[in-house]
């Protein structure tokens, strides 16, 4: 598997570099906006409300737009990572494998979080960053939490990558590939949607119930692993022709 990871390293490095350049350019733009007074800050945050309400309460109009951009960049990178995996493993150019799908999914999630952090650091003022930093755990604990969360997202990207790979190897024409992707998106999307709603509801509360939230995260991982296993089996049983 080390050889497979090495074969995919350069394309993924290029993708990650593009995303980081965009994030850094966005951060520079936010710095210019800060220096010129274009972006405003709100120092009054809501209390006694759900987590998302607290976050939104400190965002001004300009900061909110920047926050949406940061989230869009992370989502775009995640989607591009999945598409890149499908492209690299088409026609067995580089053999697909659940291990490489997970590891590159994990790496993609880490870079997406890094890009989100780079842009988000320009959305808040120095006072807000200092205030939030004082409430966060130590550096090592924070790094470990990010790594674990990225691994969690990595299971979803692993499943998506293997589903795309299965759709490609089972398609005999571009039209068939499009049909496969639409059907897979609908089928897997229903599962992901239901689990996302449950997971989001468990954490967007005034006081998070760790047992409840943990249960939803375990269910998410189990579902992602199941979708990945099904896609992997379908890909292995497919005929060798590809679109």
UniProtKB/TrEMBL annotation:
Membrane as UniProt keyword: yes
Key words, A-Z: Membrane, Transmembrane, Transmembrane helix
Transmembrane regions: 12-33, 66-88, 100-120, 140-169, 181-201, 213-232
Protein name: Uncharacterized protein
Organism from which the protein derives: Slackia faecicanis
Highest classification ranks of the organism: Bacteria, Bacillati, Actinomycetota, Coriobacteriia, Eggerthellales
């Amino acid at each position: 598997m080390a050889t497979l990871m090495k074969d995919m390293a350069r394309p993924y490095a290029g993708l990650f570099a593009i995303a980081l350049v965009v994030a850094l350019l966005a951060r520079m733009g936010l710095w210019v906006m800060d220096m010129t007074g274009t972006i405003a800050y709100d120092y009054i945050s809501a209390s006694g409300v759900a987590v998302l309400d607290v976050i939104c309460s400190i965002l001004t109009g300009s900061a909110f737009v920047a926050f949406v951009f940061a989230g869009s960049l992370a989502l775009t990178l995640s989607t591009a990572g999945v598409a890149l995996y499908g492209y690299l493993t088409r026609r067995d150019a580089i053999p697909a494998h659940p291990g490489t799908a997970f590891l590159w999914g994990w790496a993609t999630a880490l870079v997406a979080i890094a890009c989100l952090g780079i842009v988000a650091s320009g959305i808040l003022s120095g006072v807000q960053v200092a205030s939030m930093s004082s409430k966060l755990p130590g550096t090592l604990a924070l790094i470990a939490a990010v790594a674990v969360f990225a691994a969690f997202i990595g299971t979803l990207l692993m499943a998506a990558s293997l589903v795309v790979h299965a759709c490609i190897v089972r398609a005999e024409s571009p039209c068939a590939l499009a049909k496969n992707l639409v059907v897979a998106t609908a089928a897997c999307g229903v599962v992901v949607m239901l689990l996302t709603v449950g997971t989001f509801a468990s954490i967007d509360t005034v006081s998070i119930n760790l047992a409840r939230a943990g249960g939803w995260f375990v269910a998410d991982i189990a579902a992602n692993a199941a979708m990945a296993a099904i896609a992997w089996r379908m890909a292995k049983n497919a005929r060798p022709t590809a679109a």
